[in-house]
Specification:
homodimer, Arc Repressor Mutant, subunit A, DNA-binding, transcription (chains A, B), WH-like_DNA-bd_sf (chains A, B)
DNA sequence: CATGTTGCTGCCGTTTCGGCAACGGCTATA
DNA sequence: TATAGCCGTTGCCGAAACGGCAGCAACATG
């Protein structure tokens, strides 16, 4: 099912690999063939598509425009293929997800497991990275669905849903704070805390609040892994900060306690966005998973709001 | 700039013309070439794309799926072309509009004239037809922007905006009703009326109301042209019904009077929708006109609401 | 200076494409 | 019922496009 000109595919491969010879290796063709197709494309467009550096190729402005078009074509071709396949009852394909770490503890594994239980032929690729990298993966067409902190997103992405979760302190069962219902930042800073490094969005949520306090915070542990911070908290090393999404299992076991943060009477929100390339129609099997993801996150948001009503 | 496989274009032409030989004439190639490309496509997809009738070809289900993909590709190619062209400052292209008759009197000619004044290189194609035909034109990719009565629209279209206008009676200056501020349907039916035929949406707006009345309406003139009905009303032949959009010029001349309909104390709304194919990004020059169209219709809606506040 | 990598270009065999003419199937018309 | 006019398809053949191979100059790295 390759009814698109080879030039399209070659261009796409060159853009991804950043080099003609590398693209040729991936495509299993001679590099001369790839080179010629690119030259032919540039001749037809009437403008160079790549800047030739000694170390490889970089897209020009026109090249980026063509890349956008080619991505639209290839992604829509994927959707067409899945549409045809689903006619004969074969629901198969790969859902590619890029997301931040908060989801890896329970949300994503639960969802994927349950989805695979129903649709065995659908496979998954997941990549965990920072929020801005998630958005970039989507823009570059390397992922189908992205979950990231809801910052400003580029116009070529569409925010499918926005869910807000309370940021809270996470402490071991035996921690002096564990009996409280909510905590303030000051109360936490009286104990050793496990701080997020700037690459985690939690840092940017808490830093402005910490800056407002008069006291200098206790010397603390710093980390860039939510998983690690959670495990440290479980071992009683200190107070960690994150949303309830990441401590589902351990809090059910009773090892960890989640205490919603109370900042001068109002909650501290962590906004989670679900993103998709705007200029694109998802294949049926991808869209199906997306719907479940949105529903599940909505459900968790609702449950959390019920458990910790945003009192003032 | 033809970097897409000929099969794509041939398929598109065959779908539009409904025949291989007709497509070949349009494409200036031998019919055998077209036939072969179609056969090759069907072989690659693994399923027939057309049903061969004696009189030509009809799309199969898989064929319609491919048609959707091909339309997405070709329309996005158009956008890419315009993006590249706008880099060199050349804003040129053709905006294709399908709309219902209500817009032809002032909205559309005003907008097109003013837009052409600013962007000389942008040309227009407009086709006036019934609401359902407008939507179909859009779905088939024969128009870029559609304006129709806001009924239920197929899922492959996106409603960019929804504007509501009051339906009213239109009478000549000398008509006995002309002095009133508003009129009820009963008051109108006391005079000869110019009725819309079922092909016009006005018919479907008024028919349910007329059916509720006890009296049998006066024998009346029936027509399927808003233009004709307006001119008949201007000549004092009877009372016509339409929105204020269509009588801009003649009411400014004082020849015609617009009287908002009052149906048991509430207005009768005529909902106008602006539509675009959902799976598509418009070229810059088309989007620019679309924005103006939405703004202008919003402006008229606002002005009309100010002139005839929806009293109860 | 040697080595490795990059993109590009003749040369040439293979594949694909398109034009021409002819065939069988069908419809409408005389 | 015969005929003329469509229709899509197929064999044949020249032309164009494609891809592989080997070699080129330019540049970076050690």
């Amino acid at each position: 099912m390759r009814f698109h000109s080879p030039a399209i595919q070659y261009f796409h491969a060159v853009r991804r690999t950043g080099s003609i010879r590398a693209a040729a290796r991936v495509l299993n063709v001679a590099s001369s063939a790839v080179s010629r197709q690119i030259l032919k494309l540039e001749q037809e467009v009437g403008s160079p598509l790549f800047e030739r550096n000694a170390r490889g190729l970089t897209l020009t402005t026109v090249g980026e425009m063509l890349a956008r078009h080619v991505m639209n074509v290839l992604q829509d071709l994927d959707r067409f293929r899945s549409d045809v396949a689903s006619l004969s009852g074969a629901w198969s394909g790969t859902v590619s997800i890029a997301c931040i770490e908060s989801l890896t503890e329970s949300v994503l594994p639960d969802l994927i497991a349950s989805h695979r239980g129903r649709a065995r032929r659908v496979s998954f690729t997941t990549e965990v990275k920072g929020s801005s990298d998630v958005l970039e993966s989507l823009s570059r067409g390397e992922a189908d669905i992205g979950i990231a902190m809801a910052l400003r997103h580029p116009p070529d992405l569409r925010q499918v849903a926005l869910k807000r979760f309370r940021l809270g302190a996470v402490v071991a069962r035996e921690h002096p704070l564990a009996r409280r219902k909510t905590v303030t930042l000051e109360q936490c800073l009286a104990f050793p805390v496990i701080n997020a490094l700037p690459e985690l969005s939690i840092y940017h949520l808490l830093q402005p609040l910490i800056a407002q306090l008069s006291e200098t915070p206790e010397p603390a542990i710093q980390a860039n892994s939510i998983d690690l911070m959670r495990e440290l908290a479980a071992r009683g090393v200190g107070v960690a900060f994150q949303t309830q999404l990441g401590i589902n299992r351990l809090s059910r076991d009773g090892q960890l306690v989640f205490l919603p943060l109370d900042n001068a009477g109002s909650p501290v929100w962590s906004d989670l966005g679900i993103y998709v390339r705007a200029e694109r129609t998802l294949p049926a099997y991808t869209d199906s998973f997306l719907q479940e993801l949105v529903r599940e996150l909505g459900e968790r948001e609702r449950r959390e709001n019920a458990a910790y009503p945003p009192t003032s």
